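Repro case for the chain-ordering regression, as requested:
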Amino acid sequence: MSDDLNMPTDAGTHSTGHRSLDRALRQIIPPPSVPPDFRSKMMTMIQSDVSDLETRRCELKAQHQREVERLQSNYVQLRRDSLAAVIATTFTMGICASLLGPWLYDQVGSDVSLAMPLVAAVIGMAAGASVWIERFGRAARP
Amino acid sequence: MQAASPVRSDPAPSDAAVRDADIQAALRAGQTAEAFSALVDRYEAKVFRLCMAMLRDSTLAQDIAQDVFLRVWRFLAHYDARIGAFSTWIFAIARNQCLSALNKPHGCEVSLDESEVWQQVTQIPVPSATNDAASLVWLRSLVDTLPSTYRTTLTLYYFEECSVAEVASLLGVPEGTVKIHLHRARNMLRQTLKQHGMADFALWS
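-- result from build under test --
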């Protein structure tokens, strides 16, 4: 059994001394036995860990649900806001057109059919440009 | 003209992989609890002994060994056989947990360099040559003052019923390294015994 203990150079020189020291070492280093409550303690730890995981999973699920509901509500709100903006813009443009129409007709005469869309296009481009300027400004800010 | 190259085949599974094939099969069948139970049956003693050899404290070793199996339980379902045998994986977790425990500020291990070790050894009272029990206690003290690598290897060697292969597997080192460490540990012990006039090994019989 001390074959493993000795280096190859020791082969064949298994003196009584080697064996005696080996025996003494074996005597002072006995293999420890696993404590009897090792398994039960471990299973308790694992069960506690599993219940912790279960609790965390429930918490995360609830948090996920809340996030989904919040996003859904934001999405619905956005759609409502967009619809309201489109309706408001349409009515405003209609009112503007009905008010400005006669004045424009006085100014440009029969070319009013060309002037009206041009004015609408200029207003639209100005609105678009203001939005983009605001976006670039926001992006440039640290 | 070149000779036809031999057909490449998958490497043969290791002994450990063959031994744990039943656990692998249980895992593949989705029976994680059964696989874990089999793993604990097979490795709890070894893991505990490894922790004892590295930490030299029964309570701490028990805590760390339990923590090792808790980690094994957590990750068992995601275990990938391609990374190695179960034993390699579990022993690596155990070694890392032990090293983490030793590196904590109030760990039980006191790291000494070799000069300090030998200084400590020379301060141990030498027993009378005729008193066997005292001699064994003294020898135990000598083992405790060996550098930690040699001490752990030597301790595991006797824990594992003198199997170099088992010690190598537990420590994750080649068998040759284990043999060298055992040889050096034994030489250090022998030198100290000689220095104190205890070289007569008949004393230890």
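Ordering looks correct now. Helices of chain A lie at 16-28, 38-108, 112-140.
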